[in-house]
């Protein structure tokens, strides 16, 4: 075999190998991209739900949370950690109409409501900032400490929102919306609620003023 022919064959083999490697890599990347895209689409589909929730009132709350934890070491050293947390929240209160029960008498333009749900918090958008963090040599902050503090602060926001005037405002708003909508369509709304349902709804009609001032929550945990 001539030298030129041998060189040509070697170059062809190397070029073919490089081309095959490049093509294989391109195909693998393409398959990987397709697989990732399909996986992401599946995750998105799993998060889609049909809901019928309507926001009727919106409130803003601010809390100053003082956290302190004292740890006594051998009755000789009082090792403590503390932090100041300012928590702010935007609270949306409304109704989940998927929980409402009703029926329509045959041939009538009348809607009979058999059960009406209580107003509830539909979402809480929170923001937290930590200040004046101090910790001892042995008694230090860990991830579970921050999680517990934030969960407690969020629960406090939830409780204060339900104790405020937001549920009453939401109740008045939803009644106005339902009866005005029915009237505009020449429909009649009739409430036939059980006594327990009536009593439950009355709990949210008592006026409670929304506190605008900042409250301080001090806690000491051992």
Biggest sheet: strands, sense, closure? 4 strands, mixed
Beta-strand fraction estimate: 25-35%
Please estimate the helix content: 40-55%
Helix/strand-derived category reads alpha/beta
User: What is the end-to-end distance?
Assistant: 90 Å
Indicate the multimeric state.
Answer: single chain
The beta-strand count equals 7
Give average pLDDT, whole number: 75
Alpha plus pi helix count: 4
What string gives the helices and strands in order? HEEEEEHHEHE
Task: Note poorly predicted spans.
Answer: 1-11, 13-20, 207-222
**Radius of gyration over alpha carbons?**
32 Å
- Biggest sheet, spatial arrangement of strands: 5-2-1-7
Number of domains: 2
Task: Specify the overall morphology.
Answer: elongated
